[in-house]
Design brief:
- The chain is α/β, with parallel strands linked by helices.
- The protein has one domain: Alpha-Beta Barrel (TIM Barrel).
- It contains 11 helices and 8 strands.
- The two termini are 18 Å apart.
- The structure holds 1,3-dihydroxyacetonephosphate.
């Protein structure tokens, strides 16, 4: 039985004062809510603050990107070892906002996935189709390509207990959520694809849905078979909204 997981992706938002208020409220309000796992993926400069405020709570923290190299002359990059030093448990890799704007290749994403795993950080590997791909009927082909590029180079062991996020590009930041049935169908497809490549990992990999999740649609989405939680953008910046989504994942 997979535990549900709700992850907030703060993207490039926050400041020290707001973060402190948000995190203190979440720690307080989610105390004792233990039927699911919770995490926030914060901008790099706030990892230390997240570590200070979340240590000892039931909310884990992580980052939104990681370097493919261990160390060295890579200006502007942050290594997995550095994330580890700040207690990061998760790192998002391959988010469409990064792969599009910063030209991340599939090979690059595969390396990020592998290096995170090697350092004991759980990668949250994002896949999802564009509206054009969905409307022209090549959605499964597009998702399969993204999955295969990473999963075929990672051994089955690397996939064990990893996290995949299905984030249809057309649903991110648009208030156009996939219907529970659309999301379920995509998640089943992803799990089947994982099973085809690494049969042992298919049952342990958690597949999150991301794209305009809010407190009103969370319960329905998160109760669908094969949907193991959510990757939450805007609503993770509001303590009350994020808490309600976390509670929805617990069925309360
Ligand atoms: P929104 O929840 O703001 O649509 O963002 C989703 C997302 O990109 C999470 O990674």
């Amino acid at each position: 039985m997979r535990r549900k997981l709700v992850v907030g992706n703060w993207k490039m938002n926050g400041n020290l004062a707001q973060n402190e208020q948000l995190l203190r409220t979440l720690v307080n309000d989610l105390q004792g809510v233990d039927h699911a796992d919770f995490a926030v993926c914060v901008p790099y400069p706030y990892l230390f603050q997240a570590q200070q405020l979340l240590q000892g709570s039931n909310i884990a923290w992580g980052a939104q990107n990681v370097a493919t190299q261990e160390s060295g002359a890579h200006t502007g990059e942050v290594s997995a070892q550095m994330l580890k030093e700040f207690g990061a448990s998760y790192v998002i890799v391959g988010h469409s906002e990064r792969s599009n704007a910063y030209c991340e290749s599939d090979a690059n994403i595969a390396d990020k996935f592998a290096i995170a795993k090697q350092h004991g950080i759980t990668p949250i590997f994002c896949v999802g189709e564009t509206l054009q791909e969905r409307e022209s009927g090549v959605m499964e082909y597009a998702i399969a390509n993204q999955l295969d590029a990473v999963l075929s180079v990672s051994g089955g062991a690397l996939l064990d207990h990893a996290v995949i996020a299905y984030e249809p590009v057309w649903a991110i930041g648009t208030n156009k959520t996939a219907t529970p049935e659309q999301a379920r169908a995509a998640h089943s497809f992803i799990r089947e694809r994982v099973a085809a490549l690494h049969p042992g990992a298919a049952e342990t990999v958690r597949i999150l849905y991301g794209g305009s999740v809010n407190p009103r649609n969370a319960a329905q989405l998160l109760s669908m078979p094969d949907i193991d939680g959510g990757l939450i953008g805007r609503c993770s910046l509001d303590a009350a909204d994020f808490e309600r989504i976390c509670r929805a994942a617990c069925g309360i």
